[in-house]
Amino acid sequence: MSTESGIVKFAILGTARIATKVGKAIHTVEGAELELIASRRLRNAQAWQAEHGANNAVEGYESALSHPDVQAVYIPLPPSMHKEWTIKAAEAGKHVLCEKPPALNSAEVEEMLAACRANGVQFIDGTMWSHTPRAQDMKAILTGGQLGKLRRVVSAFSIQMPDTPEQHRYIAELGGGALYDIGWYCVRAALWAFDSVPTHVFASATYHRGVDNNATAIMWFEDNRTATFDCGYDLTRRKWLEVVGESGNLVCDDFLSPWDLTKQRFWTHDNQGVATEHQSQSVVQEASMIESMVNIIRTKELNTYWPQIALDNQRVIDALILAAKEGVKVEVK
């Protein structure tokens, strides 16, 4: 953090489409500033800077990491590149906001987090919805006893993903596949709701170009709790969540991102089906995520929850991918 201004200055490594959304969010967050955009080609960085705004445009990701004014980096690169650049960023003393999935497997994530710990920097993965006021409001109900003992989580995330040669989500070597990409959010919903990691999982998937493009999964947790989800690149857009207790349930039909920014809602139902609508503060979830990082850096107190849940999320994804390939129930390790 700049000692003179109190501003946390960010660098973005790469000009992926999601970088545009996060860059815009950085501009809107009090206490944050987009110091630079980096690309492998200077002309790409300069074009992005001209359109979206950044103090500087540089060629090469190393240039961003060596910049003395940068405190935090956002890494929207393909998953196969996350480990390398997270470790390099940590070794350069930069806090890391890394897109999900953090890496290709949990062993890589463990290396990344070890580097962050060794260098005293924060790691947060890009699961944006979990930073929002609505996520906090829903969690308060889950922990407040209104629904009784929580027993089941059901979720879905599907989209129509164009099959183009350059689409990295269809390239296995780059970390492609629906479970890695969008199943990640459904796994996070279960970990978040239950505050626990499943003991075993099972998944069934169809494959296209060597990656899973549609999957259905079940996760078994201790204390007679289960979670199920489906995800896919070949269905209409869905992004809903249900958490079921013994005396009520909570439903959110757009938990990943609100259909309407002005109506960030969810519902609870009692055991007679009586529904209550809840309205949360309207926010841009990318900005909520940036605010989380800014607050951690400003307080100079690293938060252990975010790196741990990223690792746990990856552990579950690893097990699900193995279960889908082998057609067997797999222990989460």
Question: Could you explain how this protein is built, in words?
Answer:
With 333 residues, this protein is of the alpha/beta class. The protein is built from 9 helices and 15 strands. The strands form 2 sheets. A 9-stranded mixed beta sheet has the order 14-13-12-11-7-10-9-8-15. The mean pLDDT is 96.
Mean pLDDT comes to 96
Sheet/helix structural class: alpha/beta
Taking the sheet with the most strands, its summary is:
9 strands, mixed
- The counted number of beta strands is 15
CATH architecture of the largest domain: 2-Layer Sandwich
Write down the overall geometry.
Answer: globular
Helical run tally = 9
Residues in β-strands, percent = 25-35%
| CATH third-level topology of the largest domain | Dihydrodipicolinate Reductase, domain 2
Secondary-structure element series: EHEHEHEHEHEHEHEEEEEEEHHE
Integer-rounded radius of gyration: 20 Å
